[in-house]
């Protein structure tokens, strides 16, 4: 009995130990699962933090790289041509693509690797500068606009444009007068034919002596009219020749004869041809309807103001480092002869003054009566109107010749004359006293020689003006200490793309690659 109890007790103890052992095993299994879970959770947090940190580091690296490349780009732009800036106010550098990339790489490589958290290196760098070439007329026009933006007064612009419109009306009036002159010449020839026919028809009926007397009187009348008309036409032609002769200065004519220089000029390469003395005046009517656009007007005014600010004219002293004296005149006409450009400018101004002076005579009743009285005294009868027209043409031409002489002396001539500013009297036209030199005329409210050139510049095509600006700069710099200077090699900006390799903050993640792009310009 006792033995059975012992056996049962041992079995109970054995079961109890088994239960305890099983509970311990279950507890150990639960502890292992928690450790694995906690480990996984920790690793996930570390990975997330690393990803966020790496992303932030790369983003910071891009910002740092942009700042460093911006500074490197400024160092490139700081290498602008000093002579070009000092003489003509233009910014431009002359680096080729390889030099440009070397400067950018050298200026930025050390800085990019000096920040531990954003350390990166340039794998490849590419640049593009063709869109910023100063030899492109639009690029040059934009930079000139920036230079001249604050130098132009709106009232001056409005005044010049308004005066030129009035000049156009005066030229139209002159054209109508020329047509009238042609009709009168035709009437004169018709009258001669009628008289000749009447003389033949009446020769058999009339007394021979009376017919001969009438024929002699008619011939004398025609001869006297022809003599007077020839005299008046000669006066006008003499005034025209005097104006076309240009300045009386004895300075030697500068002619660009070096074909290697002339054939490499931007205007020649672009196919621009020389302009005649009246080509701009003829094309003005076609150009001005396009100037209703405010942007076009502004661009024209900026370009013309730049020309008159940085280049010389016939009335200025010649710059020591300039090849041409008449630089503004070259921009207008494009001849490689300095003297020829001056003559064409004088001819154009003379034409403007003649048209306006003739318009003033026709608007002045006193002057019209004077010319008619003189015409009737010289050629009474049907030839008086034609004689009056020739007197008016000669009078206005002689006044214009005197105006041109005054302009060459830096005097100011009003665009529209008044009784006080009209200097050549009618008697001196016939007597020839107008040949005795210049009658001084200087009006405080008038326009100078340069102002008339400004009017002529408004009639010129803007692209042609920009190309000839390039011509003058290239000629002048080649003639100084820059024999290899070519305007089309000058640039005012560039775009850059840098491929960067960034070292990772965490081992095993690997390196990251980034791309940074930007543009630089003056």
3D structure, described in words:
With 522 residues, the chain is mainly α. It has 17 helices and three strands. It has helices at 2-77, 82-88, 97-112, 137-148, 154-202, 208-244, 259-262, 266-269, 279-287, 294-310, 327-333, 338-363, 365-378, 384-408, 426-431, 449-459, 462-478, and strands spanning 120-128, 493-502, 512-521. The chain has a three-stranded antiparallel β-sheet, with helices on one face. Helix 5 (154-202) packs across helix 12, helix 6 (208-244) runs parallel beside helix 14 (384-408) and helix 10 packs across helix 16. The longest helix is centred in the first third of the chain and has 76 residues, at 2-77. The chain is rod-shaped.
Strand and helix layout:
Elements: H1 2-77, H2 82-88, H3 97-112, E1 120-128, H4 137-148, H5 154-202, H6 208-244, H7 259-262, H8 266-269, H9 279-287, H10 294-310, H11 327-333, H12 338-363, H13 365-378, H14 384-408, H15 426-431, H16 449-459, H17 462-478, E2 493-502, E3 512-521
């Amino acid at each position: 009995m006792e033995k059975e109890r012992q056996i049962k007790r041992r079995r109970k103890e054995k079961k109890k130990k088994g239960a305890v052992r099983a509970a311990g095993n279950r507890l150990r299994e639960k502890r292992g699962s928690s450790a694995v879970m906690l480990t996984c959770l920790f690793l996930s947090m570390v990975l997330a933090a690393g990803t966020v940190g790496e992303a932030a580091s790369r983003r910071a690296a891009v910002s740092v790289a942009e700042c460093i490349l911006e500074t490197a780009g400024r160092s490139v732009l700081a290498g602008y041509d000093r002579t070009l800036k000092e003489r003509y106010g233009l910014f431009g550098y002359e680096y080729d693509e390889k030099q440009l990339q070397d400067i950018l790489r050298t200026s930025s490589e050390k800085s990019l690797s000096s920040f531990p958290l954003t350390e990166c290196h340039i794998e490849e760098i590419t640049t593009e500068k063709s869109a910023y070439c100063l030899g492109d007329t639009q690029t040059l026009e934009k930079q000139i606009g920036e230079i001249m933006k604050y130098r132009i007064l709106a009232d001056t612009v409005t005044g010049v444009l308004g005066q030129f419109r009035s000049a156009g009306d005066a030229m139209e009036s002159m054209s109508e007068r020329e047509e009238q002159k042609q009709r009168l010449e035709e009437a004169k020839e018709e009258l001669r034919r009628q008289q000749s026919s009447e003389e033949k028809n009446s020769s058999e009926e009339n007394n021979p002596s009376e017919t001969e007397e009438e024929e002699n009187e008619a011939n004398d009348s025609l001869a006297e009219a022809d003599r007077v008309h020839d005299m008046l036409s000669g006066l006008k032609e003499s005034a025209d020749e005097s104006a076309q002769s240009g300045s009386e200065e004895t300075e030697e004519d500068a002619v660009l004869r070096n074909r290697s220089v002339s054939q490499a000029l931007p205007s020649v390469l672009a196919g621009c041809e020389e302009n005649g003395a009246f080509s701009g005046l003829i094309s003005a009517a076609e150009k001005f309807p396009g100037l209703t656009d405010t942007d076009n007007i502004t661009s024209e005014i900026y370009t013309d103001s730049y020309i008159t600010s940085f280049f010389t004219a016939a009335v200025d002293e010649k710059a020591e480092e300039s090849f041409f004296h008449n630089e503004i005149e070259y921009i207008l006409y494009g001849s490689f002869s300095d003297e020829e450009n001056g003559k064409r400018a004088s001819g154009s101004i003379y034409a403007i003054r003649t048209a306006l002076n003739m318009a003033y005579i026709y608007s002045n009743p006193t002057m019209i009566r004077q010319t008619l009285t003189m015409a009737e005294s010289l050629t009474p009868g049907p030839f008086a109107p034609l004689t009056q027209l020739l007197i008016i043409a000669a009078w206005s031409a002689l006044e214009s010749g005197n105006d041109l002489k005054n302009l060459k002396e830096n005097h100011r001539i009003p665009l529209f004359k008044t009784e006080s500013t009209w200097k050549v009297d009618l008697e001196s036209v016939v007597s020839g006293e107008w040949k005795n030199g210049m009658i001084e005329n200087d009006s405080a409210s008038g326009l100078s020689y340069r102002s008339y050139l400004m009017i002529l510049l408004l009639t010129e095509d803007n692209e042609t003006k920009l190309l000839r600006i390039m011509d003058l700069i290239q000629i002048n710099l080649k003639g100084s200490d820059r024999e290899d200077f070519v305007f089309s090699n000058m640039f005012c900006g560039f775009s850059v793309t840098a491929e960067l390799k960034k070292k990772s903050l965490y081992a095993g993640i690997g390196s990251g690659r980034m791309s940074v792009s930007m543009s630089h310009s003056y």
